[in-house]
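hiii, so i know i said id send this last week but things got crazy w the move. better late than never?? heres the sequnce for the chain we talked about at the cafe, plus the structure i predicted for it. fair warning i was half asleep when i ran it
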Amino acid sequence: MADTRFKGRDAYVEAGPYRLMPFRFERLDAERVLMTHSGGEFAILKRAVFEDFLAGALAVGSSEHLDLKSRSFLTHGPDAASLRALASQWRTKKAFLEGGPKLHIFVPTLRCNQSCGYCQVSRADVSTTGVDMTREAASRAIDLMLKAPATTLTMEFQGGEPLLAFDTVRWMVEAAAERSVGTGKNLRYVICTNLTLLTDEHIAFFKEHDVAISTSLDGPADLHDRNRPLTGSAAHAIVVANIRHCHEALGPGSVSALMTTTKHSLGQVREIIDEYVALGLNSIFLRELNPYGFATKSAKAVGYDTAEFAAFYKEALAHILDLNRRGVPMVEGYASILLRKILTPFGVGFIDLQSPTGEGFGGVLYNHDGGVYASDEARMLAEMGDETFRLGTVSDTYIDLMTGKTMQLLAAAGVAESLPGCSDCAYVPYCGADPIRHYRTQGDLVGHRPTSGFCRKQKAIFATLFDLLDGADKETMDILLGWLNIGNVCLPRPQWLL
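okay and structure toks below
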């Protein structure tokens, strides 16, 4: 008969010269094992060394023993200092939670002058009425933003095409700047625009108010114009000319750009990256298709599977590193975010990679109709007829928006460390929960990680990065570390990581 009595503390203490601290692991291949812990430290061990570590057979004082001890994977006896160090690492990693949402997205109009097949926001035609934000709604949205406790707030304009409602954008920037005086708030401004409508008036305003510009460039002319058609004109030629115009008027690095990968992109990795280099862009964000808006209808025409995107990403990263070795500065934005989480003690402001989820906790969105949503993706779902993640309206109070049922729903499913399939994953210290995406793709906020496309993509990219880190020579490591400090990293929502 089994002994079911509670045992004393000594029964749960590892025998041997050291004790194992909590960790997670992933077999990178037959001979290498990746170990991580919640503080964000990692170690890549040979399989034999890993087995010796588990068995308590590492020689005390050996290089392997000392390295794992310094990274808090093992300890000798009760060690309050090690626990305090882990707690400090954990607290630093989660510091992004302090101050509430820092990214505030405004949609001044849903109208757009392009008809991109992979559009994720279900944009409206230029002539459509009733899809512009009213002055009253804009005013209330600004007041809500300024209620957020954070001292640094990013005010980001999306669409549609926000330059179609430039008067509203201008009024909102000026009103927010005026209302923030004396509040201790530091405001940053970002506009996400396709650049096809840019004028000197816009540029002068951006310069006056230090507005960062984010745009889309899918690659060479044939690819860009195929992905992002513009009625009556070749979009690529206009975008390229306006990127150069911004560089001349606002300075190098004034425009950050991203590309969206379609099946037509897969065979043009080098051509896409080289297009960025030719334009003097020193960063690129390689983005996959999103499962929202019109992109869901065109998935068969422009889509691909996760393995194809992972191969595309790996090839692109290799080419970007080769460019750096040849003296051409270029950063891959997504890798720079992940490397910051892997190689530094700090978290990031990138909403998709936060745990607890950044949806609502890290950013909110004010839609053209006055609706307030937990994220841009929540707004996209609403445009598709599903308002599950609507927090309320701009007429509600900040407290009601941030403590309502929707935020409680996201909080319950938004901590990756507690989710099945994530809680024991070696990559969880660097990943995010993203409950809205799993709700969209799997019908459940928690999701099923073995069949999650997001999870498969993340694991493939993490495996690529850790394999790169494990075999990196000094030159490669210097390049990767340099990416962590660059000030103009291109992201789908411009950087604001620091």
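btw The first strand starts at residue 19 and ends at 20. thought thatd interest u
miss u guys!!
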